[in-house]
């Protein structure tokens, strides 16, 4: 072994030991450069590290014994187009004795021939396990300095350096990943600490500023309706200029980022590239990065960071920012949901307290949990005193409706009338609405007790009124009728003709009043589900004849004729005769009222599937399809100008009376053919 070879071996041994003690990529790169310059010779050197995709990810430059500040971006050009680029592509070492004579030497402006003259250069690839991990370049100011021997030494150093650089690169990558993970993990912990939206904004901003070491952080949310981005929060220098600002839909960098759903780094802000954002910091923004805030696969806003303390963003900045954006999105959405829920809950509480109705909330077992002031007042307790009362202690629960264990109470209300008891044992009539609700997130039953004292009082009044009509109107009417009968006997023979006509009018009028009173009283009774009066057998033909007779006077006045079709052998019906007679008279009276002068009214009685069916057909205006059910409701009168007067109780009475007998009543009416009212009664056979 020659002395030279020994020296080389020693050198390599030293170099490899030196390399091996460092793991930090920057330190390794500097050591490699110093080793090369010191042992091969040269004025300056550079080393560029590439990732697996051949992208320059780190670098170092040394001038003499000085480390130069540089950015990897500056070196990219050399790696892409210069001598280093050739080495990268060919994976071969290059010896350039005279840079002015070699095409591969990229001449930058600061390296013009007349400024720095011709030089000598060596450039070697750094390989590890067949992979290219970087390029090492040495430059000597005197052309022709480097020779094959220098190149061999350089190659030997590069062989040692390759694996060390790769390890250091892995180490720095894993460290960066660890940093990203730590930033995100810390962010997650801190951001999750609150559910209040404003506080969550603040936490996201603080975490982002801490993780990325920037002057200013801003957070914008997309307005779903307009698409605008509204900056809801900002911290750091000039935050006051950003907060509250709005960027039009798709505008600025934020608009681009939300549109693409991907983050962006803007290394140098100019007024043209970024209208919205450049304005935001009143011209102070120099460098920025912006990432979307994602929630459930949707972009809901942006996170913007301005002016890193270290002047530029490293390769992980966007990764961290994007991670924080995604994290923040989920947390923001939760906060939004929580806030909505909270306000819904508050609204319910307000409604609960402000309601004019007494409301009690019980658990599903019927134990009172809460009562509003109205309920407490009505029951005569303080609201807290009612807690732990059983709902059945407060009122008579209709268990048939709600179920023994309240199992029939669902989200739509179960309604019943009941009695509520107060502390003194007094009773209040109430209408109860029981419904399942979520009260403070717990499934509960809401009981609304509507005080119906006033309505009940009215019912009593109505009953009193009915009784009054019955007694105080009916008996005087009967007296009038008997007076008329007596008058009849007193009329002299000469005045008989005129007198009888007058008396007949009086009798008809009294009949009508009596029928009206009887129908009103029946209506009242039937509405309360009371049975019809005593039933007696009646012949349909006779019934119809009596009804026609009752309205004959009115029909004669209008020159109308009744056509009756009712066979004598129709089966007998068992009915409250007076009531059904009044039904027929009502229908016949209406037919007279609504048919034109000199028209015909047809009444037909027939047997149909075991039922007696009676129809009254007029030739009036008819009744539109939409009203055919409604006219049977109480006090319903179809709007017609100049139509005959009435109360709107006649048909309501007819329906209840017919149904009270087990029958049915309905209308058939073709346009311009009048109306036909039909009702059925069960036959006694
Ligand atoms: P009233 O006749 O006292 O108004 P009813 O209950 O008998 O009350 O009738 C209710 C409404 O039905 C009437 O106001 C009228 O609009 C309509 N109606 C009843 N009978 C007829 C008919 N034969 N032809 C047309 N409309 C009718």
Offer a quick outline of the entry:
With 685 residues, the chain is of the alpha+beta class.
What does this structure look like?
The protein is α+β, with helices and mostly antiparallel strands. The chain has five domains: 3-175, Beta-Lactamase, CATH 3.30.450; 192-340, 2-Layer Sandwich (Beta-Lactamase), CATH 3.30.450; 355-451, Beta-Lactamase; 456-527; 536-682, Heat Shock Protein 90 (2-Layer Sandwich). The chain has a six-stranded antiparallel β-sheet with strand order 3-2-1-6-5-4, with helices on both faces. It has a six-stranded antiparallel β-sheet with strand order 9-8-7-12-11-10, sandwiched between helices. A hairpin with a 2-residue loop joins β2 and β3. α6 packs antiparallel against α7 (197-212), α16 packs across α19 and α18 packs antiparallel against α19 (650-660). The longest helix has 44 residues, at 148-191. The radius of gyration is 51 Å and the shape is rod-shaped. The mean pLDDT is 86. The structure holds adenosine-5'-diphosphate. Adenosine-5'-diphosphate binds at residues 590-591, 594, 618, 620-621, 623, 631, 636-638, 646-652, 675.
């Amino acid at each position: 072994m020659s002395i030279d070879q020994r020296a080389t071996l020693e050198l390599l041994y030293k170099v490899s030991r030196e390399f091996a003690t460092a793991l930090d990529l920057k330190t390794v790169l500097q050591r490699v450069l110093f080793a090369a310059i010191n042992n091969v010779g040269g004025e300056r050197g550079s080393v560029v590290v590439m990732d697996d995709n051949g992208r320059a990810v780190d670098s170092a430059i040394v001038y003499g014994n000085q480390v130069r500040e540089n950015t990897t971006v500056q070196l990219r050009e050399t790696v892409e187009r210069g001598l280093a680029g050739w080495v990268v592509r060919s994976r071969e070492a290059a010896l350039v004795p005279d840079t002015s004579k070699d095409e591969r030497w990229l001449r930058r402006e600061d390296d013009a021939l007349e400024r720095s003259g011709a030089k000598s250069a060596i450039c070697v690839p750094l390989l590890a396990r067949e992979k290219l991990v970087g390029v090492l370049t040495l430059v000597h100011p005197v052309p022709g300095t480097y020779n094959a021997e220098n190149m061999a030494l350089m190659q030997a150093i590069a062989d040692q350096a390759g694996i060390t650089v790769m390890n250091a690169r892995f180490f720095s990558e894993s460290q960066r990943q660890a940093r990203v993970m730590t930033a995100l993990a810390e962010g997650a912990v801190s951001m999750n600490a609150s559910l209040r939206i404003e506080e969550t904004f603040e936490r996201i901003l603080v975490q982002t500023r801490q993780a990325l070491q920037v002057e200013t952080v801003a957070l914008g949310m997309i307005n779903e309706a307009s698409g605008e981005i509204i900056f809801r929060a900002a911290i750091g220098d000039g935050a006051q200029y950003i907060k509250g600002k709005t960027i039009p839909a798709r505008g600025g960098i934020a608009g681009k980022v939300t549109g693409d759903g991907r983050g962006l780094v803007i290394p140098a802000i100019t007024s043209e590239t970024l209208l919205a954002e450049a304005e935001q910091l009143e011209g102070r923004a120099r460098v920025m990065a912006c990432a979307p805030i994602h929630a459930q696969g949707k972009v809901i806003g942006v996170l913007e960071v301005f002016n890193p303390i270290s002047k530029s963003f490293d390769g992980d900045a966007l990764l961290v920012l994007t991670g924080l954006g995604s994290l923040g999105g989920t947390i923001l959405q939760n906060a939004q949901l929580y806030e909505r829920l909270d306000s819904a809950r508050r609204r319910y509480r307000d409604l609960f307290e402000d309601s004019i109705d007494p409301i009690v909330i019980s658990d599903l077992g019927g134990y009172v949990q809460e009562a509003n002031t109205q309920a407490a007042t009505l029951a005569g307790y303080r609201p807290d005193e009612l807690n732990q009362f059983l709902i059945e202690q407060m009122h008579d629960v209709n268990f048939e409706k709600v179920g023994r264990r309240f199992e029939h109470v669902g989200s739509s209300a179960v309604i019943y009338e009941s009695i509520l008891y107060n502390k003194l044992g007094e009773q209040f009539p109430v209408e109860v609405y029981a419904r399942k609700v979520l009260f403070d997130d717990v499934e509960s039953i809401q009981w609304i007790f509507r005080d119906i004292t006033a309505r009940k009082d009215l019912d009593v009044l109505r009953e009193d009124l009915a009784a009054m009509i019955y007694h105080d109107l009916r008996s005087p009417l009967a007296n009038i009728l008997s007076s008329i009968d007596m008058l009849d006997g007193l009329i002299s023979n000469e005045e008989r003709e005129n007198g009888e006509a007058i008396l007949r009018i009086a009798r008809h009028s009294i009949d009508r009043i009596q029928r009206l009173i009887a129908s009103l009283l029946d209506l009242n009774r039937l509405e309360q589900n009371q049975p019809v009066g005593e039933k007696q057998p009646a012949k349909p033909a006779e019934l119809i004849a009596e009804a026609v007779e009752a309205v004959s006077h009115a029909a004669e006045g209008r020159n109308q004729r009744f056509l009756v079709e009712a066979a004598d052998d129709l089966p007998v019906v068992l009915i409250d005769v007076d009531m059904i007679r009044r039904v027929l008279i009502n229908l016949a009276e209406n037919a007279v009222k609504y048919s034109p002068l000199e028209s015909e009214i047809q009444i037909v009685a027939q047997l149909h599937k075991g039922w007696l069916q009676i129809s009254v057909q007029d030739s009036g205006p008819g009744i539109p399809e939409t009203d055919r059910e409604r006219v049977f409701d109480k006090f319903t009168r179809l709007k017609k100008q100049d139509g005959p007067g009435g109360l709107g109780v006649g048909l309501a009475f007819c329906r209840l009376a017919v149904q009270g007998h087990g029958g049915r009543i309905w209308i058939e009416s073709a346009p311009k053919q009048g109306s036909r009212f039909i009702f059925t009664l069960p036959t006694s056979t």
